[in-house]
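Quick one:
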Amino acid sequence: MEGGSLVSLKEDISSLLPEETSSAKYKDLTSQFCALRKVRGDGNCFYRALCFAQLESVLHSSRALQRFRDKIIQSGQVLVSAGFDESSFNHHLNTVVNVVEQCQAGERENTLFMLFNEEVISDSVVQYLRLLTSAYLQNHADFFCNFVEAPDLEVYCHQEVEVMAMECDHVDILALTQALDIGIHIVSMETDEQQLAHHIIPEGAEPSLHLLYQMSHYNILYQQPQL
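Output:
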């Protein structure tokens, strides 16, 4: 990515897929989406993309921003109930709250863009979302253990979810969207068919953000304006 940024400026979709422009999938994608933001492929792309896109989607609604801030603050209890010591996550929780509050104060895209490209801040946000995902999985172990191939859900969480730069699995995505009470739409290029695959998570939700999944990587998508 240009200039070593963690999240790019909005770009035309063709900038990501120059070799795909004649394919049916590309035509399908560009009929629905007009732009994207690239997210650095460092194993943390899903968490970074989700939080940036969610904040961007509520940036101009003070009520929705406040609701998201409240949800983040309350989520600390999810970690406590999973057995996390507050000292292990408080700093990261405060970072996320501070990012939301700065967005509330500015309600401007450039504030969000600047914060997510400050590596220490951006990575702290990612780390908190990883811990929250782990805590939610462990608090709902009876359900999620059926979807984890590891012999022990707790071991899976410690080794695969909480560690930075570990790519996320479908089960982690489901847990985090439920923990934050948000719906997401993942558009996948990773199919053998000529069509795109569409996943709404959780099922039946009204998605507030759209992500493109391609070559085990997530970028942020923007819908074509509704006429």
